[in-house]
Amino acid sequence: MGTDIESKQDVYNMYWAIFCGIIIATGLVVNAFITLVNIIDWSRERSLKLCDKVLSVLCLTRFLLLWFFLLELIGGFMQLIHFSAFGTFCIFYIFELSLDYFSRWLAMWLSVLYYVMITISKHALVLRLKSRIPMITRYILGGSMLISILAATSFSLSGEEYPCVQNTGTNVTGNVTSQFTQPFILTSVFLGQCLPYMIEIISSLYLLCTLFIHVKRRVSSASSPNMDAHWSVMRYILVLNLLSMCNFLGNLSIWFWMSYNDLLGISLGYILVYSYPVLHSIVFIPSNSKLKREIRHLFHCTKLFCCSMKDQLDSRAQTVPQRSV
Predict the structure, then answer these.
(1) What average pLDDT score do residues 179-200 get?
(2) What are the domain boundaries of the chain?
(3) Transmembrane stretches, by residue range (predicted)?
(4) How many CA atoms lie within 13 A of 27 on its CB side?
């Protein structure tokens, strides 16, 4: 009976690892593609739009983060984490968590940047913010990186008496905390996940309100509004918020259910967390004319390559019978 349960568990772990590996591999390709397109464009023009700069930093951060996810997935599947030194594991996890938090802050600032640029509000504060965004962006990104590192480091202090600093001689399994309400964990979750999620929600709600007010004014006027652009922006905002909410719930699910050793809750949480850097980056492609053009060009080149390979195989298949004759 115990052998059957263990075999079913091994099969489940294998399928789960394969599924998560496919998600991570897709994310590596998507984020590498966006980063390379912007790097090539910068090498040609020697300049990039502000949104493209932030998007490039975001995709590069996610590319590195997904490699950490892949290493963690391989280590967990091959049961290597349990044999690693706790100090090494803490350093690895602080880097991974810092990249995760920093990518979350970058995604939030990129969404806010898009919202501010397309908002129709004539408020003096919004207009002033639009004019000062290019000057303060580097300071915002630097501050976000510092907050991410501090939040990740505070998570490493979540055990008794700083386990990542003092208990370097023990293994990982002996230092897993079971108290979700510890102050260091709450500080890390708030700074790394809750705060950027709240800012993104507030900014998106403000943009939706300005869009509704703008549409209402145009409907009341003599001219009939073209709603296609407005509905496109609204769908875009809702998709970004839905993905951010799924990532937020996924992280909370991992941290919460890990204290109860609930395998299903932890697995669903990891799937949501692994999917977020992939799907969120894919959403930016249709809204970016340059990326859309390059992806069409890539598909066209791939189609031509496949057609040429098919023609070569057909020609070889026709020459073989002739030689035999």
Answers:
(1) 80
(2) 2-297
(3) 15-42, 63-94, 106-127, 139-157, 195-215, 236-257, 263-285
(4) 30
